[in-house]
Amino acid sequence: MASPRTFTFLCGLLATNLVAATLSPPAVLRIGPEVIKEKLTQKLKDRDAVHILQQLPLLSAMQESSQGVLAKLVSSILKHILWLKVTSASILQLQVLPLPNSQELLVKIPLDMVAGFNTPLVKTIVQLHMEAEAEAVIHLETSEVGEDQLVLSDCSNTRGSLRISLLHKLSFFLNSIAENVIKCLVPALPKLVKSELCPVVREAFGDVREDLLNLVKLPTSLNSDLLEFELLSPAIDGSAVQFNLGAKLLDSEGNVIMLFNDTVDSLNLPVPSNVPFSLVVRKDVVNAVVAALLPPEELMVLLDYVLPELARRLKLSIRVISKEAADKLGPTQIAKILTQDTPEFLVDRGSARAAQLIVLEIFPTSEVRRPLFTVGIEASSEAQFYTEDDHLMLHFNDISSDRIHLMNSDIGLFNPELLKNITAEILVSILLPHQNGKLRSGIPVSMVKALGYETASWSLVEDALVITSASSNLHSPLFR
Q: Around 157, how many Cα atoms within 13 Å sit in the side-chain half-sphere?
């Protein structure tokens, strides 16, 4: 279980480390070059790209690419070669780099191979070291139905990246044959990379794209409700791929409760840069998620049976207002709490709080239908996020009655501020543990592990919840 101090709440630092979007969609998933590189590397492995390299038809490619004088050279060389093939191959570390227009990404795939050939004249196998680099471009392309999608194209061998050398010096005769083989391979190998490897690279990127889109659509369970994201539009921004997302909240039967697919230009939705990945969820979506976990409800507690000491202090507080009213409180007195609204997150002066409206009614006995009084309470709690396995956890620390209003009274008018302390105690003793109990299951965030990270950092800013990889360079936490 990760310590809460690993989760950062950003405020002033965002001005320098975050880039504000012009419009604020309900959510933004930003995938950095590190994640794209790792995903594409894995998909190339899944599609056995190294095996493709090991099966490159070098001899036939030499024949097909030779012209003029080179064709005569190939013919003469083939008389001295029994076989020529790649004996070992590897794909080195990929690079994903932004192109100057900021609308495309360049993918570089370094290749390292060893080829061997032998001749009928000697039994020695001649080994050649071959280095090449495939390049491809990730960009947006509009489909026939008018939708933008990420595609990979322009795959070819990088000019100037091809290097072929003799691995071990042999006799003058074999060295001479090897040099001629190298001359014939120089025009042949780039064509092989383009014809044999590039289709696999395009297919692997298609797999990466589908995985990311499926990851976006994966629903998040919120007790009996579900939160689902949907793709509004993809984009390439700097060195990252960005998915602008809509969101919707569904009930257990799949009916849409709330729909978030609009963009808001009055919000400053932060988009973290220089992190492997980030998911930014707009504040109204966050509040809807918490609403699904903490819907408005009604709690009734027999104070004398459950919290006798609290019942005693309540009686003393009411006695200050009316001795007659205090004497009416019996052994079956009831405190009734009605939560009117879901908690709403506020970030102010380096701390995050959840504000909510609560109605409290005190009944003298369980038989009486009319409460002694009804007060409305503007309450707030310190909100703390942390992770437990692959779940985002939320916990309320303490709860306070910030303002209290008299809504109804059967004991005449009185100043409700006289009850501020005791109502706060009632909320702390009854409502706080109840809400934290409901939040205990947390919010599953399968995206973190699916992108290859065990933990993540969580930040709550004025307009959004920001989820980034734990390796993020963002700091200045509000909670430690």
A: 21
325 token code pair: 């009213």
- Residue 259 placed within a domain: no
Phi/psi at 372 (nearest 5 deg)?
A: -60, -40
Total structural domains within the chain: 2
Q: Is 443 helix (H, G, I), strand (E, B) or coil?
A: strand
The whole domain housing 425 covers: 293-439
List the Cα angle 331/335/339 in 5-degree steps: 165
Question: What percent of the chain shows pLDDT beyond 70?
Answer: 88
pLDDT of residue 54: 95
Q: Is residue 319 part of a domain?
A: yes
Does the pLDDT value for residue 475 go beyond 60? no
Q: Are residues 210 and 297 in the same domain?
A: no
376 found inside a domain: yes
Q: Is the pLDDT confidence value at 301 over 90?
A: yes
Of 215, 244, 264, at which residue does a domain stop?
Answer: 215
Residues 40 and 169 in one domain: yes
In the predicted model, is pLDDT for residue 14 greater than 80?
no
Whole-number average pLDDT of the chain: 85
* Beta pairing class for 163-166 and 126-142: antiparallel
> CA 74, 75, 80, 81: dihedral to nearest 10 degrees?
60
State the CATH number of the domain containing residue 139. 3.15.10.10
Can you give the pLDDT at residue 472? 42
- Furthest-apart CA pair in the chain: how many Å? 119
- pLDDT of 1 over the 50 cut: no
Inside any domain, residue 346: yes
User: Does residue 304 share a domain with residue 208?
Assistant: no
Higher pLDDT among residues 280 and 145, named by residue: 280
Q: Residue 72: its pLDDT value, please?
A: 66
Q: Which contacts of 81-85 are long-range, i.e. CB under 8 A and separated by 24 or more positions?
A: 81/117, 81/118, 81/119, 81/177, 81/181, 82/117, 82/118, 82/119, 82/120, 83/59, 83/117, 83/118, 84/58, 84/59, 84/115, 84/116, 84/117, 84/181, 85/54, 85/56, 85/58, 85/115, 85/116, 85/117
Close Cβ partners of 368 (under 8 Å, ≥ 6 residues apart): none
408: domain CATH number is 3.15.20.10
The one-letter amino acid at 299 = L
Residue that finishes a domain, picked among 183, 200, 215: 215
Contact predicate 195/65, CB 8 Å = no
* 454 compared with 319, residue with greater pLDDT: 319
Do 25 and 265 meet the contact criterion of CB atoms below 8 Å apart?
Answer: no
**Is the domain of 325 the same as that of 194?**
no
What is the spatial distance between Cα 394 and Cα 50, in angstroms, rounded to a whole number? 46
How distant is the alpha carbon of residue 468 from its chain centre? 7
pLDDT digits (tens, 9 = 90+) for 438-465: 999 888 888 888 888 877 888 777 788 8
